Amino acid sequence: MVKRVDRISVLDRKNLIRKKELAEKVLITNNNLTAEERRGLLKIIHDVDWEFEKEEKIKKNSSDSETIGLGVLAFFFPLIGLVLYFVFLDTQPDKAKEIGGCALRGFAVGVILSTILCTLTLLGFFI
After folding, report:
1. Taking the CB of residue 78, how many other CB atoms lie within 10 A of it?
2. Integer Cα distance of 44 and 66 in angstroms
3. How far apart are CA 108 and CA 120, in angstroms?
4. What is the DSSP letter of 48?
5. In angstroms, what CA-CA distances link 67 with 42, 46, 47, 58, 62?
6. pTM score
7. Using CA atoms in the order 37, 39, 42, 44, what is the torsion angle rounded to 10 degrees?
8. Is the separation of the CB atoms in 44 and 19 below 8 Å?
9. CA-to-CA distance for 121 and 64, rounded, in angstroms?
10. Is the pLDDT score of 113 beyond 90?
């Protein structure tokens, strides 16, 4: 039994695109198609689009879990978050924005906690 692979290989992608383009071309140029033939061609186009959408969702989900981990790292270590922000800025701007936001929030929390700690120390709560 062959295990189904969720990701589309480059060759399969080219074949699917070719298949979709051919189906679209036949639909546009051939007016003598029966209703059954039209439904078949439309199904081919729909199936190809569905495969590509499914692949994009898989890529997005795997990328989201990575972004969450990097966001947590950036929150607790804002300097690393700043470096990661500039690393991802050109290639993946959405990911860079999320990581930069986490780093900024982490920095703000650090400043607030430091201010509270210094204030409490000056007031004599920690001797």
Report:
1. 22
2. 34
3. 18
4. H
5. 37, 31, 30, 14, 9
6. 0.52
7. -70
8. yes
9. 41
10. yes
Q: Look up tokens 């700690």; give the residue.
A: 117
Is 66:99 a contact under the CB 8 Å cutoff? no
Element (H, E) at 84: helix 78-88
Check: CB of residue 102 under 8 Å from CB of residue 88: no
118 token code pair: 């210094």
What are the tens digits of pLDDT across the range 1-27? 444 444 556 667 788 888 888 888 888
Q: In this predicted model, which residue has the larger pLDDT, 102 or 3?
A: 102
- Cα dihedral 99→102→107→108 (10° resolution): 140
